[in-house]
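Write out a record, focusing on structure:
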Amino acid sequence: MITFLHFIFGFCVGFVGVIPPGLLNLTAAKISVKQSRRAAVVFALGAAVVVIAQVYVGVFFSKLLNDNPEILITLEKFAIAVFIALSIFFFIKARLDNSPEIQPVDKSDVKLFSQGIILSALNIFPIPFYIGFSSFLAGRGLFTFEYPMAHLFILGASMGTFMMLFAYIKYVKKFGFDSHTFARKINYILSALTMVIALFTLIRIYEVF
């Protein structure tokens, strides 16, 4: 069961990480509207492939902090710092309410897949996001840096990212997607959520001492 939970945690982190309208999901939505759903899915697959590498980097750095049992508290303090930073980032983003620039994408499958990879690789924000969540889960004893658990977490994050992108692709026409309103509301929610997690972790550290 704990092995399967690693996949679920990874899926949830990957899914939540691309909920706010940004370069990747809005580009995928645009391709769905301007070209076809199939073309947008090819783009999303390219983006999801890069997530595997990004999560691996995040888990690697989190493991470096967790290798020494004596620094578990430091690990949790690091997670607090990351979540506070994320909370501030989402709040500022919601206040500014800027619409991300959507990049033009070529029509061929190879170019769609390649540009999905490129745009996803340029989007380095998820890496500290993955470091923070894997650190948080490790601090709760819910994450193991061993095969196959860590690999299932990485795979789950990639699939979660793809499914969120696919949701944008599938429902952008159906709901007459308003990126400005949605972006503002979801960023406020994510700001509150990450701050709650940071406070929860801070309280736990206080109880330990």
